[in-house]
Amino acid sequence: MSTTYRLGVLEGDGIGPEIVPSAVEIATAAARAAGVSVDWVTLPLGAAAIESHGTPLPEETKEALAGLDGWYLGPHDSVGYPEPHNSALNPSGSLRKHFQLFANIRPAKSFPGAKAVCDGADLVIVRENTEGFYADRNTFAGTGEFMPTPDTAIMMGIVTRAATERVARVAFELARSRRKKLTIVHKANVLKLTTGLFRTVCQEVAQEYPDVVVDDFHIDAMTVHLVRRAQDFDVIVTENMFGDILSDLAGEISGSLGTAPSINASATTAMAQASHGSAPDIAGRNLANPVAMILSGAMLFEWLGARHGDAALTATAAVIQRAVADTIAAGVSTRDLGGTASTTEFTTAVSKAVHDGAGQG
Ligand code: NAD
Ligand code: MN
Fold it and tell me: Do residues 284 and 348 share a domain?
């Protein structure tokens, strides 16, 4: 007896309508090959939802998502929204806050056969996703950014023991399942109370994981260590804004930001979302790399497999990952990775690799 999993599809803006359908096509083929039944539920979000519903994140979208097993979120071009939406919390921040998706898990792994600044990288950044220095979303009501006069802007950073502990546990569990190394990234030499608390709480949680080797670096120095020797890092845990910045860097040096996947997870639900934005500079030209979105989907299937104890979901993730790696190793990639394939040509090649892989059993 097999369960049907219900997954939301939110295309978003910019390259979203190019990369999200690509990722859904690959996941559909992989799920079929692995014997998983998926119902895809398309929901409005982004600029199109402003047109149709008067808001980039309609209530009906949030209500529908609450009843699903997880969802694919495309990037939004929130910088391009008209007011009042431009000043409001953006759709992805709203979803992370609303569903308390506290762990943003962002792997960076280079591909055999593709060019990269660091071709031996295989690391995962675990980014705290609900507080820290992202003042627009770290309060219960209102925002942690305000202007007492037109010429003065103030922001508030928040670090709590509870939020740090829960994200640290996710990071340590992940390290335990990998190479058993964890790096805490902070700026405790300057932001002593906030990022100092983050470091202290992570070090306290470390006591529960004596099998994991722990070190820590300041965020500025960490950018140097990443570029110089990314292959030495396994799991990195850090606060919201540091993690956002560091994960773009990690994605780019391991190949391209266009290959950097992520999921945003709570204990009960997860959202697949590429690490990058809507790439307005290449949108609508069939140039975008769909790998980040495709592999974010694989992460969601992996997460669902663990949550439901369903090996066929985990197998779906493996089929997706292998098909992407095989395609790139065979020399097919988009421009950002040094290749010449369009989004649709690359997608067709990955789809074929799914079928070829399924044929080999
Ligand atoms: P961006 O990530 O969209 O683009 C940065 C650079 O990376 C650009 O040169 C872009 O072409 C390239 N790039 C990104 N994804 C790519 C892909 N899949 N394939 C090939 N190249 C890719 O960052 P930005 O320019 O700062 O932001 C653009 C818009 O996206 C803004 O409105 C921003 O608010 C939004 N944004 C949304 C999210 C999200 O939805 N979670 C995240 C970041 C930025
Ligand atoms: Mn970002």
Answer: yes
pLDDT, tens digit (0-9, with 9 covering 90-100), for 281-330 = 999 999 999 999 999 999 999 999 999 999 999 999 999 999 999 999 99
Domain boundary among 193, 226, 253: 253
Helix 311-329 vs helix 291-308: crossing angle, to nearest 10: 160
Indicate if 13 and 136 belong to the same structural domain.
no
- Give the pLDDT confidence of 47-100 residue by residue, as tens digits: 999 999 999 999 999 999 999 999 999 999 999 999 999 999 999 999 999 999
pLDDT in tens, 18-47: 999 999 999 999 999 999 999 999 999 999
CA–centroid distance, 128 to ligand 2, in Å, is 13
User: Does the residue 26 lie in any domain?
Assistant: yes
Q: What is the pLDDT of residues 154-195, one digit of tens each?
A: 999 999 999 999 999 999 999 999 999 999 999 999 999 999
Residue identifier of the C-alpha nearest atom 12 of ligand 1: 279
143 phi, psi to nearest 5 deg: -135, 150
In a domain? residue 112 = no
In this structure, the answer to whether residues 141 and 229 fall within a common structural domain is yes
Classify residue 29: in a domain, yes or no.
Answer: yes
Q: Distance between CA atoms of 14 and 203, rounded to whole angstroms?
A: 41
CA distance 174 to 169: 8
39 noted as active-site residue: no
DSSP 158: B
- Answer yes or no: do 247 and 123 share one domain: yes
CA of 311 to the centre of ligand 2 (A): 32
CATH (domain of 88)? 3.40.718.10
Q: Which two tokens stand for residue 76?
A: 């939004």
Question: Is 215 marked active-site?
Answer: no
Q: Is-catalytic flag, 234?
A: no
Answer whether residue 335 is part of any domain: yes
How many domains, the chain?
Answer: 2
Helix (H, G, I), strand (E, B) or coil at 294: helix
Q: Which domain holds residue 197?
A: 117-253
Nearest to 265 by CA among 10, 23, 36, 69: 69
Q: How many CB atoms lie within 10 A of CB 317?
A: 23
